[in-house]
Design brief:
Helix content: 25-40%
Radius of gyration: 20 Å
CATH superfamily of the largest domain: SPOUT methyltransferase, trefoil knot domain
Largest sheet: 6 strands, parallel
CATH class of the largest domain: Alpha Beta
CATH architecture of the largest domain: 3-Layer(aba) Sandwich
Strand order of the largest sheet: 7-6-5-9-8-10
């Protein structure tokens, strides 16, 4: 966490990964104006909040601004895709739409890394903060799998499709079940929050919508558990496609 105007300016100019900036509403002055321009020039997400919000985060003299420094370096998903294709591998990515719970995010990244996914895509705004708790929940997987920030989910979907990657949304709003489609193709899985699910626009843009088959009375799964089930099915199908070297 960075507190104060000058420390934030120095961190941005030094190339630190700034995850988010909170700015006190109504703050005026040359230094704050200069800092805002710097934030905007580097496309850093920021939010205006009341002074009480900042005071609840720290008792130190914050000068009306608090920034959160990411413990990881974010990747560029287009470069990652090119690198995966260049190695002759089949791209497998996850995209999270509105997953804000830190523990769920950490668990999803752990599942993704364990199952060989190449990257996790998250929107710049409305996503879980990547902090010590997320790192801990991921069991360190966040240091081993690229996380890529995207400005627009819809634009990211179009970019993926343009690169030959099928986009598969996981939602209960369909009858098609997970095992009914070929998961050995280049694929990006979209998962939504437990509260609101995947946005209607993202569902419309997706190439396929599938659901996890469930036989009990409970109608939904925790999103991190769902990610594990989906990734396992992908790995299962991939393993069936690989010839048995012992035969």
């Amino acid at each position: 966490m960075l507190i104060g105007l000058r420390p934030l300016q120095e961190a941005i100019q030094a190339g630190s990964e700034i995850d988010k900036v909170l700015i006190q509403r109504g703050l005026q002055g040359d230094i704050i104006h200069e800092t805002k321009l710097l934030i905007q020039q580097h496309d850093i997400p920021y939010q205006y909040v009341p002074q009480e919000k900042l005071n609840s985060i720290t008792s130190k003299n914050h000068q009306g601004i608090i920034a959160f420094v990411s413990p990881i370096t974010f990747g560029n998903f287009e470069n990652i895709i090119a690198g995966v294709f260049g190695k002759g591998e089949t791209p497998l990515l996850l995209m999270l739409d509105g997953v804000t719970d830190v523990r769920n995010f950490g668990s999803i990244c752990r599942n993704a890394e364990c199952m060989g996914a190449h990257a996790v895509l998250v929107p710049e705004k409305g996503s879980a903060q990547i902090n010590e708790e997320a790192i801990k929940t991921s069991a360190g997987a966040l240091y081993n799998i690229p996380v890529c920030k995207i400005k627009s989910i819809l634009h990211a979907i179009e970019t993926l499709q343009h690169n030959g990657i099928r986009v598969v949304a996981c939602s209960e709003k369909t009858r098609k079940e997970l095992y009914e489609i070929d998961m050995t193709l280049p694929t990006c899985i979209i998962l939504g929050s437990e509260e609101s699910g995947i946005s209607a626009d993202a569902l419309r843009k997706s190439d396929e919508i599938v659901r996890i088959p469930m036989r009990g009375k409970t109608s939904s799964l925790n999103v991190s558990v769902a990610s594990g089930i989906i990734l396992y099915e992908i790995v299962r199908q991939q393993e069936l496609r690989v010839p048995n070297s012992k035969s």
